Protein 1
Amino acid sequence: MTDWTKGAQMVAEGSGRELLAAAGVLFPDERGRVLVVRLPYDRKHPVAVPGGGWDPEDGSPRRTALREIEEELGFTPRLGPLACLDWTLDDHRPPIAAHLYWADPLTPEQAAAFTPDRAEVGGWAWLTPEQASRALPPRLSRRVTACLRAPRSAGPLELEDGLPVGPAGDVPAPGPVPVYTGAAGLSELSAWWPSAAGGPAPDGPPLLERDAYIASRPRIRAKARTVFTDRAGRVLLVRQRPWDLPGGEVPYWTLPGGGIEADRELPRAAARREVREELGWSCEPGRLLALDWLPGRAADPTAVRNTALLVYLFDGGTVDEEQLASIVLPPEELVEWRLCEPAEARALLTPASWSRTAAALAARNRPGGPAELVGGYPAG
């Protein structure tokens, strides 16, 4: 069985819950411009930021970003914080969770020392934010422009289809929609941008048909959970009806929430649905408090899952006694709920789940975007 037919089989078995993952890097220079590259294999949208698709051996999207830059441009960058996570839906391909990272500014000498893989990078240029907004394809343009316009202290930004989402006070105002120009005129700006478009490099690999390529890419899964507390600061946990996992472990206690139906809903919609299904409440998710990446077995042999998992943790706010009294649990899924002091929650949850919860609670008390976690612990 070929790689892409295996990928197609995985998609079928995923029942709409699987999505692609990717990571890119925003390289600023000393003049505030951003680095873009030419994709020799993409005639329709040849301008992009450096980066690429996640592989199962990557322990995190941060590692994906590092690997892609090493492969594409021939050097190891110094990554800064996560700039944004953008979840996009598309009728013609699976959804994508796209991560963008800031990197340290590059000097002209560092850029001149690039050793690009010509099958992956056919040229590069430094663009002002305005130039980049026009040259990049519309969805990527929205994603990059949102990161460039927002103060660093606001990140990581939560995006859906390239647009900031969340509570009104946390969402940067969108700018005007630029006219898409693609690669037009870039050869006049950069000595490293070819003047003529073309196909893949002569010694590059043959191109896969688009559908076959998408089918060949590995998938992840995602969950949306919500952190509710009472006035005393106790955390609301729910206990799942027991079910077997590899190794015989049963995750009894967890935060309310569950799997995102990746092919039909966005993370906030999933959080809203899960709270309604599990607690009987109709409420809007608050701030995104944390993003936790759980590697699969290819990156971590001790992992309980074959597939990597991305967990969104939203703020549910403070609940009162009347709201708690209205909880209606689905008996086929949950058997009880409990308000827990931090010490009790730590004892009931797995170490990674407690660390994830603690990071989300801490994020409530500071400005800015969500905490970036890997396996429940700060990424880095």
Note: The first strand starts at residue 20 and ends at 26.
Protein 2
Amino acid sequence: MALANLIFNGLHDIQATRFSQLASSAIIIFDHIITLDAEVELIWMSPWSMGKGLFVINRYYTLISVIINNYALFSPSLTDSVRLRFFRWQGWTGLIACMIAEVILQMRLYALYFLNKKVLALMVATFIVSSASSAVIMGSVLNGITAVSHPIPGITFCTPIGVPDYFFAFWIPIIGFESLLCGLALYRGFQTFRASGSLFQSGRHLVAILIRDSVLYFLVMFATYLTNMLVWISASPNLLEVPIAFSVALACCLGNRMILNVREVNREIEHTKEREKEYRDTGSGVTVESIKHQTRQTRSSVFGPSEQLTDIEMAQLRSMRADQSYTGFIVL
């Protein structure tokens, strides 16, 4: 009876891991499909920049990891040594995915604080400490584990052996750093509603999008990372891969959405400027109302339903272009 229960639980863990990998892969692929048109228009048709490079790495490195992960979890022919290398690659991939998304978020916050060097120094220093701490824990664990290809007779599956109890500590530095970034975004958001007559106020719609995306990213990723940590504390080693697949998928999708969202708003600003210039130069009957209507038609919110802009907000968005270095850093 005890052996039967052990086999049943093992099969249950294997199925849960495989289904979670398929589910997280579906999230990534679906997000790729529904944002492909925006990617072509906003990323590939723009010049190369730091933001474009981060987007491409975040999007396609994760897509490659989806292919490798599914092959490793479903392939019946991999040896123990190959599966051990897969575990090590998968562990570092999870950390890299988190780091890329955090870099994107830091760049947004740096723009929100008007390229404040002190804020940048705080974020970079904390990011280095957080990433290094998680990397040390990950490296220590991966160097001490082994892998088994056949945990149950007749069943081929990657199973880690020798995972230490402290592995959950990997998530503590990441959660702490994400909390710092969220606090910075909330503080800047509080200042937004108190500011008036400044560049920050004049571009408050674009800034509000940056704040919204940053806070929403934190809420989703905090819940994901906390779930990972709780599962790693209480679950068996066979289930360690269940939540981490979702952390990679969500970090990838939300990081890319932040870049696409801001670039779309910037395109709206450029479109409004072009239409107004045409109106001034040709007097072809293009009215301010028609400009605003067409701009509303082209705008779509990445995280939620479309929002209509008031006349004042349109003027504020246009005036944001007064500071080219600031706005250029935002759109990257």
Note: Confidence is low (pLDDT under 50) at residues 196-203, 297-327.
Protein 3
Amino acid sequence: MRCLPMKKFIFVVAILIFGISLQSQDKKQPRPPSTRDTIIVYENPPDFKLIDTLGLRKAWGIDLSVANNGFAFGTFYRYQLKDVYFLQATINFMTAKDKNEVEYIDPWTGQTFVPNKVNRILVLPLSISLQYRLFKDELADNLRPFLMAGTGPTLIFTTPYEKEFFSSLKYGKAHYTVNFYIGVGAYIGLDPRTISGLSIRYYFIPYSKGIESLRGRPIKEFGGINLTLTFGISF
């Protein structure tokens, strides 16, 4: 067997060593990082304005009030004119009495009575009001403060106190005047389908002729402060 010349032998060995070295470096060299970005970027969501997105412009509900002369009950219908303006029609059922009235119980019959009382008085103001929502862009929709002002006609219905309540209705008399009121309040909650809120209203209901609740003490002003709870639905 002929042996390879020394130069050729060294040349072949060098090529083999170089090739093995390249393969070894290729295996040990880490792969380049993936160009794909694995970081998830979350964008800030837009402001949550649930009330305005459903387009519920009409509302109906009831008002429960504590007034100067006792309790009052009312109902309303509201319509949204523009972004922050609402038109509302309200009718309330209020009782009126003299501030000096004192109710006693007859020990013989168990019946209650008020000395010197002449008339029972029921006041029914019908008001058309404008409501303005405050701070719409500054406050979240779960708190919606508002201002309101209204006016309209008022029926004052009187019945004789000396007769039993239901039988006295046929002897009732109607008196007519006007009413004005202003108020401030707020609706609470995010559900646009329901309405709940609290307001303070001041009613001005003058009647210049005066109506007697107690004998000799005609009442000429039937308004006052009302603390009102409101419940309703939007549609």
Note: The CA atoms of residues 142 and 189 lie 4 Å apart.
Protein 4
Amino acid sequence: IERFVFIAEWYDPNASLLRRYELLFYPGDGSVEMNYFYLMIRLILINFLKKNFFCSLYCCFGSRHDVRIIYQYTGRQTLALIKPDAISKAGEIIEIINKAGFTITKLKMMMLSRKEALDFHVDHQSRPFYNELIQFITTGPVIAMEILRDDAICEWKRLLGPANSGVARTDASGSIRALFGTDGIRNAAHGPDSFASAAREMELFFPSSGGCGPANTAKFTNCTCCIVKPHAVSEGLLGKILMAIRDAGFEISAMQMFNMDRVNVEEFYEVYKGVVTEYHDMVTEMYSGPCVAMEIQQNDATKTFREFCGPADPEIARHLRPGTLRAIFGKTKIQNAVHCTDLPEDGLLELINYLSSSDV
């Protein structure tokens, strides 16, 4: 019998736990089996199966709402790792990933321990440059991503180019390693060679057990919080926003993709309830898809970054502050690209909350 196997997750607000299930879909009759539940929901799933039945698709199974399909065992995803030497070029690399038709479904800036580096490079332990690999990958932050598209492993390797950056500049001049790498070790980014390697590496950075994987890089000092809103993430604007923040002189010291549910968003926007007429639309936008939280550092970060974000209404921003993030990337007062913190104490609380796990 043909079937598709997924790992599904559901946030249980009563227990404050992210529960995971094995979900099986049978295309023959459109039925779904999830643990001991056997539910007939052909009309819900059949339209999504071939194109959209993957990360961040929210469905309703019986009484359980907001069950999110997070993983499909089809080889349509792979790991993309931005190495320490190319962290400053993360915006450009993410822009290349988006333009190549990939969807970023997980993202986290991390710092690998020596043990994690040994686990990551286990396939290279017999190579003469093994110790140099371990030393290099632990010198600074990395950005790990799960990226999704057809033939993901091969397409990502093609974008990367040859492992040696010098060879890449000769043989694949437009590749990521040609553009941003230095040599065979400091070569900007990594991608697994096979489905088995991709599965093993994804498990290291984004454990299916629900663990956090390698530690995030948050400093929680002299910082403020920026959240790239769902519409901007889905429109592929993340790379451009990262470049704009960097070029304005801010440091992005931590970053993580996450999802919010309606209850969390309502709490997040509680101060606006009954105050602004757009409150309900603001809530709906914020839980409509993945967000990306960033720790922003600079002197007096809360004030200076809020000024850089610009007025909440992009139309006003384009007239008064045309160089601000909302003026450039915002569409409406609801879809205005980014959230920024108003008060220093709120920024720290938001960062602790949204950088502590992959989902809220």
Note: The chain has three domains: 4-72, 77-214, 218-354.
